[in-house]
Amino acid sequence: MSATDKLLAGYQRFREGYYQKNQEQLFKLAKEGQSPKIAIVSCSDSRVDPTVILDCEPGDLFVIRNVANLVPPCEDTENYHGTSAALEFAVTSLEVESIIVLGHTQCGGIKSLIDNANKKVDKSFISKWMMQLESVRDEIIADKRLTDQKSRYSCCEKKGVQQSLDNLMTFPWIKERVESGTLKLHGWRYDLYSSELCALDENTHSFIRIS
């Protein structure tokens, strides 16, 4: 069975199973529109599906996915800003109550950033996107306490979540709502091996396992 045939078979199971059992809720979403309370910035990695990890239903999450779950700083340029546009819609139109930046272990974008330090890399969409973390990467490479690539990957994954949270506060319509208490920001990290989920403690700047 080809990959697309597998998808079509899955769609048929959805139509005959989930759709039949949940028609009322799906019709309600179609008629009344979406009103999720949570926006989540997640990596495009196929192994990290927020709706599966968090056992959510359609309409629960407004999911924004990109390479390495990064939030760029607020910029007033003529470029295309997909992540920023999605955040603007989630905050100003849907009026979500929380934004979660969901990082994860074994991130390919982070790995390429660390592995290509001090190497001449051809400019690509990925390399230019990951330039957001160049200063973080350089600090990690210079840290003598981190003696192997695995520890550098892990550190960069965590610091990437922190930087994205900091960048969220550069958007005026996010900053205003956070300061008024109507919007909360969270940094989480998912472990692919153990399925452990950790949350960033804003006081200690460390990730604590969510029980």
What does this structure look like?
The structure is a single chain. This protein is of the alpha/beta class. The protein has two domains: 1-33, no CATH class; 34-209, Beta-carbonic Anhydrase, Chain A, CATH 3.40.1050.10. The chain is 45% helix and 16% strand. It has ten helices and six strands. The chain has helices at residues 3-16, 18-21, 23-32, 50-53, 82-93, 108-115, 125-130, 134-142, 149-168, 172-180; strands spanning 38-43, 61-66, 98-104, 184-190, 197-200, 207-209. Strand 4 and strand 5 (197-200) form a beta hairpin. It is globular. 26% of the residues are buried.
What's the CATH superfamily of the largest domain, by name? Answer: Carbonic anhydrase
Mean pLDDT: 95
* Overall 3D form: globular
Structural class by sheet pairing and helices: alpha/beta
> Treating each run of at least 4 consecutive H or I residues as one helix, how many helices?
10
Quick one: biggest sheet?
6 strands, mixed
What is the third-level CATH name, the topology of the largest domain?
Beta-carbonic Anhydrase, Chain A
Any idea of the CATH class of the largest domain? Answer: Alpha Beta
Strand order of the largest sheet: 2-1-3-4-5-6
Radius of gyration: 19 Å
Distance between the termini: 40 Å
Low confidence ranges: none
CATH architecture of the largest domain: 3-Layer(aba) Sandwich
Number of self-contained structural domains: 2
What oligomeric state is this? single chain
Q: Write the element-wise H/E pattern from the N-terminal end onward.
A: HHHEHEHEHHHHHEEE
The tally of beta strands, per DSSP, is: 6
Percentage of residues in helical conformation: 40-55%
- Share of β-strand residues: 15-25%
